[in-house]
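Researcher: We're teaching a course module on how sequence relates to structure. For the next exercise, students receive a sequence and then see the predicted structure as C-alpha cells, so they can try to spot secondary structure elements on their own. Here is the exercise chain.
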Amino acid sequence: MFAGNVADEFSTKELEMESSLKGKSVLVAGGSSGMGLAVATKAAALGATVHIVGRSPERLAEAKTAINGDVVTHHADISVASDVAALAENIQQVDHIVTTAADLTFKPFIQISDAEIESTFAAKFWGAVYLVRHFASRIPSNGSVTFFGGSAAYKALAGASIVAAVNAALDGFARTLALELAPVRVNVLSPGVVETPAWGFLPEKDRAELLKTIGAGLPVGRVGRPEELADAAIFLMGNGYATGTVLQLDGGTNV
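Model: And here is the predicted structure for the students to work with:
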C-alpha cells in the first residue's frame, strides 16, 4: 500500500512539473537549431508560448514551421547588448529563459586568436549577461533562468581551453545569480557531446565516425541526443527546488 502511494505521489509530481509550463512564456536563445530547438519544441508541446531568438532568419522560419505550438520568432544577436535591449522591449514578461547560444572555437591555446576567444565568449557568456541584465525585472518570482554550459569545464581536453573557461564562467555566474535574483531560480545544464547540427562543419561520414568513437568511450556507449537535454531543461524549469545547480548530463564523461 505504501509503495503504491509513493508511486502515485511521484506520478502526480511529474504531471505537475510538466503542466507547470502551460500558459507560460519561455524564451529560448539559440532555439532555432540543435538543443535549443529541442527545448523550444518540448516547451511548446507542454503548452508554453515559446519565443525563439536566433541570428538566422531562415533557421528561425524553419523552426517556426517545425514546431507544433505557439511560437514567436525574434531575429537578434544576443551577444549585442542593443539587440537584447530591443528584445526586452518586445517581450514584456517571460517566465523562463533558456540560452543554448554558442559559437565555440576548439583550437590549441597557442594557436587561438584574440578574435576567436572573443567570439567564444560573445554569445555564450556575454549573451547570458545581457539576457539577465535586460530581463531580470521581467521574470516573475516563480520563474527561472537556465544556461547551457558544458563538460569541458570539468573534463580537460586538449584544444578546449577557452571553451572550458567560458563554461566554468557560466557555472560561477549562475551560482551567484541564484542568490542575487532569488526567488527567481538560476541553473546550469552541462551537456557532454551531443549530436547536433553544430557538427555540420565535418563531412557526414567523418562526423558519424567521430561521434561513434566518442560515444564508444562513454559508459552509456553513445553520445547524447538533443531531446534528452531538452527533457533536463524542462525539469530545471519546472522543479521549484532547483537553483544554483549545475546539472551534468554527459553520458558519464566525468566518471
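Model: If you want an answer key for the exercise: The chain has eight helices and seven strands. The first helix runs from residue 2 to 19.
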